[in-house]
Structure formats: C-alpha cells, structure tokens
Amino acid sequence: MGSWMLVWILCSTVILMPVCLDGSIPVHFKTGRPLYVALGQTLVLEAEFKKTPDDVIDMVTWERERGKETIRLSGAQGSRISLEKDDALLRITDVAEGDFGIYKVTVTDSNGYQEHDSIEVRKIEDPPEAWIARVLECVVGEHDKTQWDSPQFSWLVDGVPVTNQTGRRLNISEVQGVNYTCVIKSSLNVTHATHYEALKESVRSCCSGLIAVGLVILTAVCVAAG
C-alpha cells in the first residue's frame, strides 16, 4: 500500500509540475505614461504579452476607471470602441470627455493566472505648436571603404561654429546666416560641404532692380511722348 501511494505521489508531481512551474503571462503597454490625446482624435492603446510557446491566453479584458466608476470595455460593432490584434489593441475614435481616465488590461492564461497593467490617459490642454522649418541635411556619399568609426558632423554658419548642432541636420529657420558649412570628420578624411543661402537673395535683389529700372525707363518714355 505504501509503495502504491509513493508511486501515485510521484506521478501526480510529474503531471502537475508544468502547471506549478508555469506562471502568469507578463503584460505591459508599449507607450509611455501618462498618455495624452486631444478631444475628437483617435486613442490607440496596445499591450504586449510576453508569453512562452507553452502559454495559452484564455481571456483579455479591458477596463476604464474614472473616479469611483469602473467600466468594462468591449468592441461592439458600430461603436467608437474596437478591439484588434486578438484583443491586444484598444482603439477609440472621436475621443470625448468621458474617455479620459485610467485604462487597465488584464490577461488570464489557461491555468487561471492573471496579470495586468494600467495607463492613465489625459486630455491635452496645450497642444504642441507647429511651424515650417527649413532643414539642411549633410549627406555622405556611398563608398566601399571599411572604417572603424562613424562620421561625426558639425556645422559652421558664416564661419562661426554652431555649438548646439552636432547632427547631420541643421534647421536654418533658427540659425540665420549667409553660408552654411557642414564638416564631416572621420578616420577616412575631413570633408566640408557648403550651402550658400545668399544666392536666393541675390536673385531676388536682381529681379527687383530690373523691375525698378524698367519702371524708370517706361516713365521717361511716357513723359517724352507727352
């Protein structure tokens, strides 16, 4: 009797061992937090489930908490709310005041273990400003020479170094000048490339001068004819 009991215990241990070793499936949101969105826009929340090949997701639920009220969300057909990518992605169109709050996603595996993550969604009060920027980009030509380092970029505006610009791009809307020089330094060489912004001004001045001269000549002809 004791031997059979021992065998039964060993068999049960072997059978239940995978269940005991398996834990819950970690879940986290892909975006930073808190997340901001404007009224009337679309909100997209996507969760990532870190599961092993043996893990089986039994259920994914979404909830929104506002104050003391918690609402379970579902992607009903024809509504503003939809669930995609096997319920890993929540999409809400035409965001309204009631859509702001704390969103919680919970994943339940086949063993009943649960994990969740939460993210706060806030209404943006002061949207970022936008403007048109004129950007110069320094491009290095393709070559088949192997080198140990990567090119380093720096900029000169009218011969003066721009201390806060060390990348391959320069916003000339913020840095006024006549000529813009990009310096590319690497173990292969030190190369300079210059852009002359004054060319456009020269053309504009030239055209203005020609128009002025034409008007003077036309006036003189009219006076003489009169």
From TrEMBL:
The record's listing under InterPro entries reads: Ig-like_dom_sf, Ig-like_fold, Ig_I-set, Ig_sub
Signal peptide interval: 1-23
Checking Gene3D superfamilies in the record gives:
Immunoglobulins
The Immunoglobulin domain extends over 32-124
**Keyword Transport on entry:** no
What Pfam families does the record point to? Answer: I-set
Q: Where are the transmembrane segments?
A: none
- The answer to whether UniProt assigns keyword Protein transport to this entry is no
Identify the keywords attached in UniProt to this record, alphabetized.
Signal
Q: What is this protein called?
A: Immunoglobulin domain-containing protein
Which source organism? Phoxinus phoxinus
Q: What is the lineage of its organism?
A: Eukaryota, Metazoa, Chordata, Craniata, Vertebrata
